[in-house]
Every structure is written in C-alpha cells, then in structure tokens.
Amino acid sequence: MPDVFDYFAQVELPTPTLGDEEVRRLFQEVFGVAVELEQLGSQQDQNFRVFVAGERAGERADENTPLGVLKLSNPVFSEAEIDMQDEAAAAVAAHDGALRIPRIVVGPRGPLSAWWQSSEGRIHARVIENIAGKTLTGSGYLAPAVVARMGELSARVSLALADYAHPASGRILQWNLEHAARVIETLLPTEPDAAVRAIVERAVRAALAQLEPVAAALPRQVGHFDITDDNILTPPGGRLPDAVIDFGDVCVSWRVGEIAVTVSSILHHDGADAFSALAAIRAFDMLRPLDDQEITALWPLVVLRGAVLVLSGRAQVRLDEENTYASTALDREFRILDVAASLPVEVVTAGIRRALRPGHGGPRAAQRSWNGAALIELPRPRVVLDAGTESALNDEGAWLRPDALDEAAHAELDAGAAVVVLPPWRAVLTGAPARTLSAPATVPTGVTLWLAEPVALPRRDGSVSTSDGTLTWTSGDETVTISGLPEGSTPDGLPARTRLFVQRFRTGGPIAPAFVPVSQAGAWRDICGDPAAALGLDSHTDTDGDGEDGTDGILATRHRVLAEVQEHYYAAPPRIERGWREYLADVDGRVYLDMVNNVASVGHAHPHVVEAATRQLHLLNTNSRFHYRIIAEYAQRLTETLPDELDTVFFVNSGSEATDLAIRLAMASTGRRDVVAMREAYHGWTFASDAVSTSIADNPNALQTRPDWVHTVAAANSYRGEHRGADAARYAPEAVAVIDALAADGHAPAAIICETYFGNAGGVALPDGYLDQVYAAVRRHGGLAIADEVQVGFGRLGEWFWGFQQQGVVPDVVAVAKSIGAGQPVGAVITRRDIADRYRTQGYFFSSTGGSPVSAAIGLAVLDLIQQNGLQENARVVGAHLKHRLETLGERHPLIGHVHGAGLYLGVEFVRDRVTLEPASAETAAICERLLELGIIMQPTGDHQNVLKIKPPLVITRESVDYFADALDRVLSTGW
Prior knowledge:
Blueprint (H helix, E strand, L loop, with lengths): L19 H12 L3 E6 L5 E7 L15 E5 L6 H17 L10 E2 L2 E2 L1 E6 L2 E8 L5 E2 L8 H17 L19 H8 L6 H22 L4 E4 L8 E3 L8 E2 L6 E4 L2 H10 L11 H10 L4 H28 L4 H5 L1 H11 L4 H12 L25 E3 L19 H11 L4 E4 L20 E2 L2 E5 L3 E2 L6 E5 L2 E6 L2 E6 L9 E2 L5 E7 L8 E2 L1 H11 L24 H9 L14 E5 L2 E4 L4 E4 L12 H13 L9 H12 L7 E5 L2 H16 L4 E4 L8 H5 L18 E4 L17 H14 L6 E5 L14 H11 L3 E5 L14 H4 L6 E4 L10 E5 L1 H5 L15 H16 L2 H22 L3 E7 L2 E6 L10 H13 L2 E2 L2 E2 L5 E4 L7 H17 L2
C-alpha cells in the first residue's frame, strides 16, 4: 500500500492559507491562465471559485460562468490519495450517467492538476468542474421528496463504487466511521467545555453499546462517505438534487456508513428529526438493501458521526481561529448530535426496522408476552374510555379542557364502574394542543387508571419501591411503574378516584415519555411492550385507520370506490374526523388551523347550528313542497339582509345550482339565451354554471369549450390582468363595448354574471365603478345583472355584508350558497318578484331538499350567529390585522407579489419576479405542503395556482391568524 494519510499520526490539520495574489500568480505560471478568485470554505483544504480574468461580469456567482473550483489539498494527503479521489469520481460518472459528477477541467496546457511549490511548501492544486446549481448548504427546510432523493443519491454512489478498489483506499481519515470511536477517544480529552464533554460521552456510550456487537459483521467497500447537504446540488430551476461533488473523503469503510453520513446532514435542517429522516433511509434501502446488522448499526453511526463533527469542528476552530467555514458550522454540527441523540438509539432503530422490514424482527409488542399473573387484581365492572378524535368525549371543544378526561372518568365511576381505563398506544385528542408546528405527542405509552375504591397490591416476586409518587416493581427483565400516587403512599395499595399511570419497560432499557407522537409510537411499543397485559387487561391497540406501514386504509378505499376526478386535498392527506371553531383534527390527534374553509362560515360544529339541526330533525325534515313555518321564516330573514327590491327567494342545494338557476331566470325573464361572463372565473359544475365558468385551473379547455351562447370579457384583475394599476379603469368600458356589440349583432345578452369580488383569483377587488358601468350597459339592452356571491357574501368581506355593496350597486339576481349553511347543502337565489314570476314560462320549479326544514333551520342558525355574535365585525377587524401582517411579510420576502382582498377573504399571490409577474406555481404548491406540516390547512387558487386562498371560518381569532402569519414567515424564511 502506498504511503497514505493516518489521522492518528497527525491529529491537527491546519488548512493551507495561501494569499489570493500568490494563488493567481501560481495559477498563471503553472496552468497558463490568468484568473480571478472567490474564496470558498473548507475545514481542512483551501478552496476557490475561479474565473478567467476579464470574463467575470457580475458580483454574484450565479451571474457568471466560473472556470471551475480550485482545490488546494492539505499537504498531508499523498498523490495516490488525490488520484484515488479523481478516479472514484470518474468511476461513479461512468456507472451512473444520470448523475452529474464534476471532472478535472482541461486548460490550454492540459488537465488543470499539478503540484505547486508555494510559500507554504508543496501543495497539490487541481481545478474541478463547476457543477451548475445550488447545494443544500445551510439549515433551511428539506422537503420529504428532497430527503428521499438524498438517500437515493447515497445509494447510487454506493452501488457505483461497490466494485471499485484502489491501493490508497485504506487511508485512515477522521471521518471514516470505522474509526469514530477512536477519533472521539482522541479528541474528547482536549475539549475544554465540560458540558460538551458530558453530552458527547453520554451519546457515544449508548451508540457504542448497540454498535459493537455487530461491528465485525458489517460489509465494507470503497465509498464517497460525504454525500451531505453541502456536497449535492439541485439543477438550475430544479427542486431535487442530481449532482454529487467533493470526493475528498473516499476510502474503504463500512458500507452502511454512506447512508449514516447522509442522514446526519439532514438532522440540522429546520423541522428535521430522526423519524423525518426515514425517507432517506427507505430510499437508500430500496436500491442498496441493508442487512439486519447494518440496520442495527445505522443509528449508532449517525450518533457517532454527530459526535465526531462536534469534537472535530471545535478542535479545528481552536487550531485555526480564522477558519470561518469551520466556525460557522459549529451550531449546526451540535444540532446534528443533539437531534441524533434526542431519542434512545434502540427506539430509532426499531423505527428504522419497522420502516424497512414491517412485521419482521425487533422486540415487537405482540412477541413480548407477559409472563405470569397480573400484578394487580382489578375489580369489575371495567369501562374503557375512548378519548380519540371521533369520541363523543371531545364534543363541543371539550378536548381543549385539561380536566375533560378526569371528568369523564369520574362520571363513569359515579355510574357504577369499578375501574375506568384509558388504553395505551391509541392516539387521543383529549388534551391535545390547538396549534403546534410539529405533530404533538398524542399517544399514551401507558395505561391510565381510575379506581372507584382503593385496591390492595398483592405481594409479587421481585423488588417493589415507592419514590416521588411512583411505585416501581422490577422482576428480571421486566419493570412496571405506577405514577400519580399521593405523597406518602406505600407499596401496599392504590388510591381511589386518582388518575394513575402504568408503564412497562425492559429493566435497564429506555423509559418512554408518558406521551409520544404517532410517528414514534410503533417503535416505542416494540421496545416497551403493552402494559395492559401486566394489569390483566385486554390489549386495545388501535387497528383502525392507518396501517403498520403508515398507509391509510380509508384513503385506499376512497380511491377504489370514488370517481378519480372527485379529488381530495394533498397527495397524502391527513384523515380529518373532527372540527371545532377554526380547527380541524385528524385521527392521530393532530389539530390543524383551518385557513381555507369558508364552507364552515361560523366555525366547525358550532353548538347553535348542531342544536338547530338536531331539534328540527326531531320535528320534521321533508320535501320542501310541504307547508311548514321555517322555510318562510328563513326566506324572510334572507331578504332582510338585501336591498328592498330583492324580495323573492328560491332555495337550492349548492352554489352550482344557485348560479345555474340564476342563469335560467335571466333567460326566462328576457326570452334570450346569450350570457356574458368574466374570464378566469368559476361558477359551478352544473351544465349552465359550468358553461359560464372560464377558469383554466378548473378546466384547462374552458375557453375553447364554451357553448356559443356564452360570451366572455377580460378578467378585471388590476394586478395581473391585461390592464394593471390605474389602467384597470379600462376594463369596464371594454366590457361595455362587448355588450353593445352583442346587442348590435342581434345577440343582446340575457344577463351578465360575475363574482362581485374576483374570488377565483384570490380575492382581488374589481376596479372601482366596474359593476356600475357593466350593469348599466346590460340593463340598457334589456338584460339582467347576476351577482355570484357564493364565496364572498354573508359578511366575509368585513366592511360589507354582500360583495356588490363594495361596488355601490344593486344586482337583479343574487346567487348565494356555501357559507350560508355552514357545511349543510344550502343555496339560494334572491331576485325581484317580477323576475321570479317570469320563470313560469319554463314550467314549475322545486327542489326536494332545497329549503328543507333542516336546511332552513341551519340557515337561520347561521344568520343568528353572524348577526348576534358580531362575526362580520370580527371579519373586518381580524382580517385587517391579518392583511397588515401579510403585507409586512411582503416587505421582506420578494416571493410575495401582492396581498389581495378584504376582511377574511384574502389572497397572497406568489411571483418569481415582481416586474414580469411570472407566477410561482410550483413554489405555491410546495408552500401549502410545508404549511400542512406546520399544522395549517391551506390551498392554492387562481388560474396559475399561485395564490393562497385565505378564507377561514369567521370565528377565527387574532391569535390564530398570527400563528398563520408566523408560520408563513417561517416557511418563506427557511424554505419549502
């Protein structure tokens, strides 16, 4: 083997520090090229981005085409090692042509690779091709797809180097995880901070305990062993990395170390944890399957990598205080170790094994049967509490009360139960927080008990003790704890009407927190087992909903039995089963802030709405042709919100039906068939409402497939449309000209239909005076003005109850739905009596359930709440505060082109360029996915799908909209 580097023979590696002037001189002397330089960071080498002199046009690297990256290798590395790095890069490029791999740049005198005689001695210099794109450097957010791609790249490089060999591959690097324990042993005594030493020692001890038994069996090969966020690049305009650089750590080591290094680099990124890194491990395993020993070794190696990074980085900074690359990395390196060691190694390993080999291996709960008699003879009858998302226990927001669980248990005890049990390992909503940036801990790891009477504890083999309100029983490899005991309790009995918590774990093994997130629950259960068995109770492990592999069985059923075009939000949607006020809760007990659901206008599951519906269902729900009081009462209340002339109501079931009927009314009233509609609008899915819908987001062929009786005018969008800013005043005269031309051509329109506030574009206000001019024009030719208020009506705009009020006009027909029923299918068309009477020419009208007793009762309840609880005012005040917050974000984040809207009907439009207004459609979709991870339901809108449609329930609080604004700020700051 050639003479190669041995880290332990030279622990301190100061970087070369050649000055720019000397580098430029040597570059020209040796390579024959005059260059300009840009310093790049490195821990132990010296790197520059180089440009041919005179060809550098701009100040930013992305404005220029560099000649390449000049790497001045640390003098301790031999020529054989440097040759090996270049050969390995070439081997990967040859094996996997889809990977972008840098090569040595060729200059006028040949390859730009040579030894320089410098002021600091003999140094090897080579220019490596500059790969276009961006690294993932920094601690910004990494999307799951990016994390998975990192694991895939790691596997592809590992496969490419599987058969590669080189005499220098046996060099001993500090980054080679085979030597991690020795590196740590060498550096730890030199670390001056006792707190850091203690953290590292604790983490390393646990990692080595799991690694050492399998170390000798781990497969070895040559690898890159530095496929990290710093060393992979995404192509220009791309989202997923496809390039691997910096082969400086090539050596022979444990094969599993490749993915361990990659995973470690994920952990310091915003929001990352051990279980979010599973996407990378899965992707690696799909291409480069891990054997059982490698699965066991993987997380210990991640921990050891974190420890080596911390100690090496701190040592390098002490050695070389001017090395800003090393010093700026200290915080993120410590974050890697902190996250890697935040959970017990064996728990993360159980999670990895579950993800890769579901149903195989590991101390699964079902395999850890309880041996012997139960520890406690619990009396009967026993009642099992359900505190999950769908339980009645959580109705009317009771899940927010900290005492809700105890109240429910005591009520069961008072009703005759001897024991009340809350089972372990089933997600509970009761007590879950309302707004969390990550999935909260909602799965209890133990059995919760309430006893009607004190229960004596029988004597059992093993040791029993009490301390700080916790009884601990240990026998062999089993330990059971009972916490919640009053002060001064003895091991002889358990108290009555006290919440007790029973956990089981392996003696000497990790002790689970009382609650863990759903993502961790399976792994903890595999390690700890089911404590119910220790109490003689049946196991109540949740089997509904998500499967062992994380897939949702209900979602699979939906895909199988529903039409494909009946879409759902999100590619991997949470299963939402409860709503309350502005919140939605999934079956995992995760609570989301609902920022998009204008259907639930007065809040989800409002008790007044529920009571009205329930009461009416007890009385009557039938065909609307029957005579009953409430339909008349509701119609009267609706007309009272409108100008006097709009005095006659038709009831339907939806917004689509409402706009369809409004069009039919206009045709019947005028005897005409032509209708004018605004482009880029959506009005519904029925035949007539779809005919006037021209949004290409909803139908890419919308404009080409319009029937001949539909005539369109330009979208009056003063931000993005044909006329912008002050020029938006031109929209109305141009629309008037279209109407006049139709009339002159013998096609005078029956009506013009448009939203009174441009909702589909994200809440863009129509130009001042627009409706006044177009309404006047259509009426001048005998037509009607139809106001589509489905989205914006009923107080959502805050300043105005109806959208047309903002324009100072009165339409002839108003179509409204959605929010008026708070989720019940209720819609209405309100018009003048003379227009309504003319519908007789089309025959009779009736809708079996439009205006049914229950629908009318719910409609009245919604009106009551809006008017009596000041929800329109809440929309005005809270909406104005939110709009100000969003506009402030726009001052710091260039992606925000504009904030549209009023009240609680807002839109944040994302653009890649504020001058060209190039829509940031892909970014908007990714931002919505990231917001979901942060606990916020949000969706894009607009023809370019680049606008956040912000339409929360009208009951939303200032605290909730601040949470949304803060989360959006975080996304825009840390990435998506």
